[in-house]
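Intended use. Records like the one below are meant for learning the mapping from a protein sequence to its folded structure. Do not use them to infer anything beyond what is encoded.
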Amino acid sequence: MFMSSETDSDILEEIAPIGTRGKETGQFHMVSGCNNIDGTEYENFWITRSTHNCLPLKPEREMRATVTFKRDICQSRTKSQANSR
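Structure written out for the chain above:
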């Protein structure tokens, strides 16, 4: 169910290559029990990663990674889909 941070980073690099992200504009870190959520905002993307840390010696701790595109077309699609529900 979990994957290693390296595998997660490789997938994120394929979806949102570092060269296309733009300048980093913000970060957040949240902890809730065993779960950590880290988010980084770039000019063109938001990237969040969720990690389960109750088994610190196990390399497969990444639960989820999300890339949110900030392009105008993506924003308008999200709004139109929400309005059609």
